[in-house]
Amino acid sequence: MKEDNNLDNLDKKTKEQKIVQTDAGSKDGQDKCPKCGSTEITLNVNKGLLRCNFCRHEFEPEKVAGLETDIENLQGEVVGSGALDVTADTNDVLTFKCSSCGAEVVIDTSEATQARCHWCRNTLSVNQQIPNGAVPDVVLPFSIAKADAKAEIEKFVGKRKFFAHPKFKAEFTTENIMGVYLPYMVVDINSHSHLTGQGEKLLRKYTRGSGNNKKTYYDADLYNVERDFDIAIEGLTVESSADKLNNTASDKTNNVINAIMPFDIEKSVKWNANYLRGYTSEKRDTNIEQLRPLVDAQAKDIARHKANETLKEYDRGVAWSNEQLDIKGQQWKAAYLPVWLYSYQQVSNNKKVLHYVAVNARTKETMGSVPIHMPKLIGCSALVELLGLFFWWVVFIDWEYGWLFMLLGIVYFFIIYSKYRNKGARHRHEIETTSKMNNIKTVDNFVQKRTGLTNAKIAGVNNKKVSGQEAGNKVVNSLIENNELASFVNKKINKDKE
Fold it and tell me: Which of 222, 263, 411, 429 could form a disulfide with 447 if both were Cys (CB 3.0 to 4.6 A apart)?
């Protein structure tokens, strides 16, 4: 019965969707220069304009029509046609007839969205959307040249060469970096947030006891806190490739790609296959319903952190007991966003790890992972540990916190490891996503004065909590389970056929 209700809700949601045909007016085949008719069109990275390589004419990119821009008044669910569900049995191979010579040209859309006619050498493009995730609603053109990206990657790695693995240092070169358009889902949300809980304001901090028996105490005022506001979220961006969504994978460093966000989504333009010439791309392979739990969790993170702007006097934090986010309107669009990517595969003890250094091809934001020469790092950390023990024993043995010198080697190891691997690097969606509060209502009712507290923060403090990462892991696990189930079913079908 519960499954039937879920299906009914899903059907209802689908009926309520407003589909915007973002490829309206697009035509497959030859995409010609409006001045001379040539199909030799590429992107001028410096200007963000498409340029004819024959007559050098440059033309302005076309904006997508039909999508909502007034997010604060958005109602219902609006979906760009490029964000509709990927159909698994879609034929990736398309055949076009060249309008210049009549020859048939085959394009495998799983590999590319353009191909040359083998007779007249004109370029044919796929501009109409097909349900395999290859053609998005919008594309954000590259604006950082390859030479600039190479310089950023070299600078990033250059600061990490001392402990880098010798084989990596010998093989490192930026000549093989690739410009790639990665698939994302961009979501705009008009919502209403209601938060209730308790907060504390610090009155005084003091210590009691002496020597090693000293203890810190706090006095604070406790308040019942309530926040109610409308919040418009623009350009919430999540990966729509199942592979890149997996930020906890042990065999690749996907989190560093996530960390180079945000992008200036507002400058996205209507899809045109010519933007991809000279670059590679990766298809979207997830659907809205699969990504919805992640988007909902990140939207709640954004609302929770936005409310902190009204909570500055609660220096001991706020413990929300109830958080509600009601979505009044939502808009989904599929996007290709530009990344310069360096990759290096490290093989050690029969384990393969793919390290990335990624550059946001709009902002130059750079993040990466560099293979570490562990014997060297461990040796240096041991030396630091010995020096710490020496200083503690000779100089600071009588100091109250002198024992901290015994941890210097361990602290040094984790600082260096973090700097090279950047496992904790991520896109801080909760504060980096554009959002705006309206109609703010605040309630702050004094409850009581508390004395002799031993916690530095209020018990259960969560006003700076981030749950989007955990939701992302659940989405990835669900995708893995579904893929394994699909694989099992396909094997069984094939076996039955045999």
Answer: 222
Q: Are 36 and 53 in contact (CB under 8 A)?
A: no
Residues 368, 358: Cα–Cα separation, whole Å: 6
Domain borders along the chain are 21-60+87-132, 79-84+140-369+422-497, 378-414
Task: Say what the pTM is.
Answer: 0.86
Strand bridging mode 138-139 / 269-270: antiparallel
Cβ atoms of residues 45 and 145 within 8 Å? yes
Higher pLDDT pick, 475 / 251: 251
Can you give the pLDDT at residue 273? 86
Q: How far apart are CA 66 and CA 5, in angstroms?
A: 32
Residue by residue, DSSP assigns 67-111 as ----GGG--EEEEEGGGSPPPTT---EEEEE-TTT--EEEEETTT
For position 185, what pLDDT does the model report?
97
Instruction: For helices 374-394 and 408-421, give the axis angle rounded to 10 degrees.
Output: 150
DSSP class of 63: P
Q: Six-digit token pair at 27? A: 């035509």
pLDDT of 241 over the 80 cut: yes
